[in-house]
């Protein structure tokens, strides 16, 4: 019998958590032969909601769901014991008119305890995906408090941006989204991110050859992706949830499966200095995985236009890091 994977989800009763758990339990993410034990983690006042979710998980009768364990965020060391994956979703979402960075002093402190508890209790090979905003800097905070967990095991989510960018390119080119590949997201999951059309491909051709309206690529495309989260909040009155859950699950799937040749996946990872991005910050890069280990893909074309966009988003990440200096050990 295959050993179950233990997958912890913080904020499990929130919008994104609720849209994530059932797919994690279903076998879709880790495979139909891989049992999963879910660790649901919530604030003390949301434990009742977790009971309801537990009932619903039972009622799905997923053959791959080998257990559900519920925890209060008061006792994170217990919650993270032996976990193989942690999806850090639990945190406050922004409202209308806010930037994600406005959450930094509210959500940042959550990630000091998260990092310490992961370091103390999780599997030594745990992989951590930070979704709670501002996710790059929250990931930096958590990682900094977990010195015993390899740096390569920490990710912040830019996959929603990648998916948004691919969809926008597909709509403009009037092609199915499956025809769009190799879309990188550079830098911060914020309004300064750089969705890279220069290296993107549509039907295997450079996107900038298929889409000849280069003004659109350089302006509307970029700002639409940068502002998509705010546009959803304005329209829905709440931040993206189903698409964010989908992106978190896409991130995990893409890391545990080999990346097809000629394509990239997008996640923010600790910079090793590639592409002139300052070492020590968590930045979006084009990645590929062999199903176990990932690497930053080298050789993406970065012209003067891309350079200025990447520099702007990296400068914002450096400023965020300075804002949370007191939360870094
Ligand atoms: N990186 C990305 O692409 C995206 C990130 N987000 C972010 O994800 C976060 C969660 O969003 P939603 O699920 O929509 O919010 P939500 O408010 O619906 O759910 C958050 C849940 O987290 C719980 N929570 C709060 N503090 C906690 C703690 N310390 N430990 C455990 N649980 C805690 C709350 O009780 C709540 O149930 C927000 O910060 C949001 O901005 C949202 C969309 C995309
Ligand atoms: O915009 C927000 O606050 C939520 C989020 O990160 C996104 O939808 O990309």
From TrEMBL:
Amino acids binding substrate: 94, 100, 133, 164
Keyword Transcription regulation assigned: no
Keyword Oxidoreductase: yes
Assigned keywords, A-Z: NAD, Oxidoreductase, Tricarboxylic acid cycle
UniProt cross-references to CDD domains, sorted A to Z: MDH_chloroplast-like
Function: Catalyzes the reversible oxidation of malate to oxaloacetate.
The protein's name: Malate dehydrogenase
């Amino acid at each position: 019998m295959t050993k179950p994977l233990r997958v912890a989800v913080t904020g499990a009763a929130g919008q994104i958590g609720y849209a994530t758990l059932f797919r994690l339990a279903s076998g879709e993410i880790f495979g139909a032969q891989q049992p999963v034990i879910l660790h649901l983690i919530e604030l003390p006042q949301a434990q009742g909601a977790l009971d309801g979710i537990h009932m619903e998980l039972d009622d799905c009768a997923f053959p791959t769901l080998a257990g559900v364990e519920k925890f209060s965020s008061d006792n994170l060391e217990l919650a993270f014991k032996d976990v193989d994956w942690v999806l850090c979703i639990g945190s406050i979402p922004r409202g209308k008119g806010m930037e994600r960075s406005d959450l930094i002093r509210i959500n940042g402190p959550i990630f000091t305890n998260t990092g310490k508890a992961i370091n103390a209790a999780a599997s030594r090979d745990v992989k951590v995906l930070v979704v709670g905003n501002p996710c790059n800097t929250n990931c930096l905070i958590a990682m900094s408090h977990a010195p015993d967990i390899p740096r390569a095991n920490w990710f912040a989510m830019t996959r929603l941006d990648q998916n948004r960018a691919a969809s926008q390119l597909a709509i403009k080119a009037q092609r199915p989204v499956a025809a769009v590949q190799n879309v990188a997201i550079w830098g911060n999951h914020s309004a300064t991110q750089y969705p890279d059309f220069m290296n993107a491909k549509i039907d295997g051709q450079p996107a900038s050859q298929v889409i000849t309206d280069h003004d659109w690529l350089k302006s509307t495309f970029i700002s639409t992706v940068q502002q998509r989260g705010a546009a959803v909040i304005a329209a829905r009155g709440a931040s993206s949830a189903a698409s964010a859950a989908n992106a978190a699950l896409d991130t995990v799937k893409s890391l545990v499966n080999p990346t097809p040749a000629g394509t990239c996946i997008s996640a923010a990872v600790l910079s090793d200095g590639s592409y002139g991005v300052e070492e020590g910050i968590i930045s979006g890069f084009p990645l590929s995985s062999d199903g176990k280990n990932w690497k930053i893909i080298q050789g993406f074309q970065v012209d003067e236009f891309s350079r200025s966009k990447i520099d702007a988003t990296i400068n914002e990440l450096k400023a965020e890091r300075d804002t949370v200096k007191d939360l870094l050990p």
